[in-house]
Amino acid sequence: MTLPLTRLPCGDAGHDASLPDSPRPPWWRGRSQPGREMARRCRERIRPWRARATTSRGAAVLLAVSALFAWAVAVFSTNPPERLWGIMAAGPYGLAAIVALAGRPGRWIAAAVSLIGALIVPLAWLAWSGRGQPEVSVVIHSAGLFLHHGTPYQGAHAVATAHNPYVYNPYLPALAVFGVPHALLGGGLLTDPRLWFGVVFVLGFAGALSLSRVPRPWLWTAVVTASPIIAFPLTTGGDDLPVLALICLGLALLRASQSPRPAVRIILAGLALGLAAAMKATAWPALAVALALVAARDGKRAAAWLAAATIAVPIAVDGPVLIAQPAAVVSNTILFPLGLTKIKSPAASFLPGHLIAEAWGPGHLVAIALVLLAGLGVAASLILRPPRNERAAGWRLVTGLVLMFAFAPASRFGYGVYPLGLACWLLLATPADGGTVAANGHESMTCGASAGQRGS
Questions:
Q1: How far, in Å, are 61, 85, 116 from residue 88 at the CA level?
Q2: Nearest Cα residue to 196 out of 182, 186, 184, 217
Q3: Within this chain, do residues 122 and 139 fall inside the same structural domain, yes or no?
Q4: Domain contains 244
Q5: For 67-76, how does the pLDDT look when each residue is reduced to its tens digit (9 = 90+)?
Q6: Are both 113 and 157 inside the same structural domain?
Q7: Containing H/E element for 101?
Q8: Which residues of 251-271 are buried (b: 16+ CB within 10 A; e: fewer)?
Q9: Per-residue b/e over 279-297, b at no fewer than 16 CB within 10 Å?
């Protein structure tokens, strides 16, 4: 019996017209061709700059810039701890810039000189003499309140009759743990909160680099820590650094190539981000970015696991204080940073939000409205075009933080450590090899991500 040959309907030879074409994803899914091309060009431009920065000449230039920054702080800053850091750090940075020109061994010697001269020695001196930014005293005082009264916040009567802005504690209860050694054992180098801020930052940032497949993560952590991006705020204050490290660690745990146990890494990422959110509200935008990433890449079920793990930590750590003193938590951590309390926050800078708030009466509300608009804009971008890997999520978070800090009515330049620290991690991290770009231009995810999509 001979089967009649029939001519295929319109289409290329070998194409079965009976099989429907795969539906084209909506415009808001994935990245458009111009967007992919722009991202590729950005990566190609970053690679040579990163390679130049690791040469002897590049390291010398970066260290010379660091020396100039420290000199500018010493000359122009009116804050005594900041000026002292600038005076002590300018020389070591300058010496390190000269040593870095001695070839490969010179670069690592220069890193050691910077770490010792610009961080360890100034931090030890300031901690031993009890000098630092007011936030160090706020953390210590909140720890004492927590140990004696079960809450890190002053009572309503003390706040109502106070005229000192530092009666407020703008930090969430979990950050008070860094002041417990000082509250229990008294002042000293080993009980200073800045030492423990630095320990948590080093461990968290090194873990993020290791998960991102960065060669010699501990060495690069030392280099980043010795830079003015970290050494300057850590020596004088440093309360943002453990939060920054936990954000980097949480996003690094969401790397697609870490796929032997995707559920475990998602839960661990949620715990890291949740702990950061339990310390400071500045970590909250990272939660939204991480949820958008996991929902778009791994599915709704994985996003639910991430949300559950993230929320569990603040509930367990901060929940008892919130239940006992809800008004104090709102007043200290929300109203005071926004400048909506009787005593205004002393945080000041030349950033647009603060200038607008100080310009005229309604300027304060205008600055708050700009912060809300920036947050809504970033949220819309997460919904319409969610990030597909941890690097894209990190850069999206950098953009959102820059906008919100720029327009905040009571912002300070110290908040720049978040976008700058995230940028250091993102520039050092290697792209994940768990996802490839298919011929049609959309990402083909790892088997773990595909399983998450089917499970959703």
A1: 20, 5, 11
A2: 182
A3: no
A4: yes
A5: 999 999 999 9
A6: no
A7: none
A8: bbbbbbbbbeebbebbbbbbb
A9: bbebbebbbbbbbbbbbbb
Neighbours of 168 (CB within 10 A): 22
Count Cβ atoms below 10 Å from residue 310 Cβ, excluding itself: 26
Do 170 and 70 reside in the same domain of the chain? no
Q: What is the average pLDDT across 182-194? A: 91
Last residue of a domain, one of 344, 361, 379: 344
- Quick one: how far is CA 53 from the chain centroid? 22
Would the pLDDT of 342 be above 60?
Answer: yes
Same domain, 123 and 138: no
With H, G, I as helix, E, B as strand and everything else as coil, classify residue 40: helix
Residue 29 lies in a domain: no
- State the Cα–Cα distance between residues 156 and 327, nearest whole angstrom: 9
For residue 62 the two structure tokens come to 């970066």
Residue 275's domain spans which residues? 132-344
- Structural domains of the chain, count: 2
Rounded to whole angstroms, what are the CA distances from 231 to 66, 86, 100, 444? 11, 11, 19, 40
HEC string for 210-261: HHCCCCCHHHHHHHHHHCHHHHHHHHHCCCCHHHHHHHHHHHHHCCCCCCCC
Do residues 100 and 53 lie in contact, with contact meaning Cβ atoms separated by under 8 Å?
Answer: no
Amino acid 32: pLDDT: 45
The verdict on residue 353 lying in a domain is no
Q: What is the mean pLDDT of the chain?
A: 82
Whether 31 and 395 have beta carbons less than 8 Å apart is answered as: no
Of 310, 344, 378, the residue that ends a domain is: 344
Distance CA 206, CA 190 (A): 22
Sign (positive or negative) of CA dihedral 131, 412, 398, 301: positive
182 shares a domain with 78? no
Could you report how far apart the first and last alpha carbons of the chain are, in Å?
Answer: 48
Q: Which two tokens stand for residue 172?
A: 């969430």
pLDDT tens-place string over residues 91-122: 999 999 999 988 778 888 999 999 999 999 99
Q: Residue 194: how many CA atoms within 13 Å on its side-chain side? A: 29
pLDDT of residue 432: 59
Q: What is the CB-side half-sphere exposure of residue 317 using CA atoms within 13 A?
A: 20
- What integer is the mean pLDDT of 155-161? 73
pLDDT digits (tens, 9 = 90+) for 41-76: 655 555 665 666 668 888 889 999 999 999 999 999
* Maximum Cα–Cα distance across the chain: 102
3-state helix vs strand vs coil in the chain, percent to 5 = 70, 0, 30
Instruction: Go through the chain and tell me how many residues it has.
Output: 456
Q: How far is CA 236 from the centre of its chain?
A: 19
Domain assignment present for residue 418? The answer is no
**Same domain, residue pair 96 and 204:** no
DSSP string, 164-178: -GGGS--S-GGGGGG
